[in-house]
């Protein structure tokens, strides 16, 4: 099994002890532990860490505690919905709206633990695979490689590879898989499923459309943060993109990961929405080649919009952006003033026209309200 999908797959148990040793010997390891577990003695922790022998031990002893620590330190609580419907007897493709590089899928894992469900495998963008410690921690945590960039020929080849691996993981390894609904995070608050992602699911099988995708048991996941991860970084990027092609600075992805971890998030809500049914796939299959994927994307989007938890930040932003009082019953004047102060403090640190930046920022928070208003259109 080790040689199957060698460049793509996560680590297997036999590779864990060596990876654990490499991570423990990395100078950054002590800094990571000091942030996540400030009260522990590092040398004692390192001794326990070096005893880890399997993927399951790493996830239970390290990742589960680490993500719980991040949630406890930086949020006002995590709530869930729909996970009682899931079963270890039926694996599938979790297709999630994507707001934070690390935490969207990481929070899913601690929720799966909470409901006594097997953790899923997770896509790991090649653009994030920088540095030995990052690669080792990711691949010990069931993360598998998905290649970003390249020319059209490379893109197609890489798409077949990751599609084949995900189908293999679900049908042969009996492992669920998490993947974002689009290539990269939602920056503007408008969660949209890309048809290209759905077509990528299908290219690893010659079965007809319905049988092909039914085999993957596509299940939308919806995560809602009260305070959008990296909201001001996203605002700056969107402003620049209005006027020129945006070029990422060296280390920008890592900075976004760290910002997403450290930033206060308010409340967090994660929903496992209803899986896509055979009847829905049959309905899509009646349409033309592209239209069937477009309709399936719309069905997934409607699941996301219906299950997105709207917070006071979303309602306040909508009313400020629309210059209305439509949702004023959902927040107080003091909460509105606090949000405006939060916004102003962040926007004044950015480069660009303040009014344009303000509109971009507000729409990031207002868009989920707009989407929910238009869900059945």
What topology emerges from the helices and strands here?
Layout (H helix, E strand, L loop, with lengths): L15 H10 L2 H9 L5 H8 L5 H20 L3 E4 L11 E4 L6 H12 L6 E5 L6 H9 L2 E4 L5 H20 L5 E4 L14 H8 L6 H6 L3 E8 L5 H11 L10 H11 L5 E5 L5 H8 L3 H19 L4 H11 L10 H15 L6 H20 L4
Parallel strand pairs: 1-7, 2-5, 2-6, 3-4, 3-5
Antiparallel strand pairs: 6-7
Helix pairs in contact: 1-6, 4-5, 10-16, 12-13, 14-16
Q: What this model shows, in words?
A:
- The chain is of the alpha/beta class and 377 residues long.
- Among the domains are: 75-229 and 265-307, Glycerol-3-phosphate (1)-acyltransferase (3-Layer(aba) Sandwich), CATH 3.40.1130.10; 312-373, no CATH class.
- It is 52% helix and 9% strand.
- It is built from 16 helices and 7 strands.
- Strands 1-7-6-2-5-3-4 form a 7-stranded mixed sheet, with helices on both faces.
- Helix 1 (16-25) runs antiparallel to helix 6, helix 10 crosses helix 16 and helix 12 packs antiparallel against helix 13.
- The longest helix is centred in the N-terminal third of the chain and has 20 residues, at 55-74.
- 37% of the residues are buried.
- The model has no long low-confidence stretch (mean pLDDT 94).
In terms of DSSP E residues, the strand content is 5-15%
Count of DSSP-assigned helices: 16
Query: How many beta strands in the DSSP annotation?
Result: 7
Strand order of the largest sheet: 1-7-6-2-5-3-4
**Helix amount:** 40-55%
What's the quick description here?
The protein is α/β, with parallel strands linked by helices. 52% of the residues lie in helices and 9% in strands. The protein has a seven-stranded mixed sheet with strand order 1-7-6-2-5-3-4, sandwiched between helices.
